Amino acid sequence: MRTKKMRGQAFIVFKERERAQNAMRSLNGKPFLGKSIRISFAKTKSFASYRNEGVEPLFAVSGASK
């Protein structure tokens, strides 16, 4: 039987793509709270990304498939 657990997600916004790539290279796969972390570019924009563009999002829908 599988139980639903929180996957634990975070959006981190960098002003420069190069800094984001450096962070990904240096941190991807490193241990964090007993698990190795997986870092990738977001498939959707975070609230912070919209705010950086001067847009205030009204709502967001988030979900994970299986």
UniProtKB/TrEMBL annotation:
Residues 1-44 form the RRM domain. The keyword RNA-binding applies. GO terms for molecular function: RNA binding. The keyword RNA-binding applies. Gene3D superfamilies: 3.30.70.330. InterPro entries: Nucleotide-bd_a/b_plait_sf (IPR012677), RBD_domain_sf (IPR035979), RRM_dom (IPR000504). PROSITE patterns: RRM. Keywords: RNA-binding. Transmembrane segments: none annotated. This is RRM domain-containing protein. It comes from Streblomastix strix.
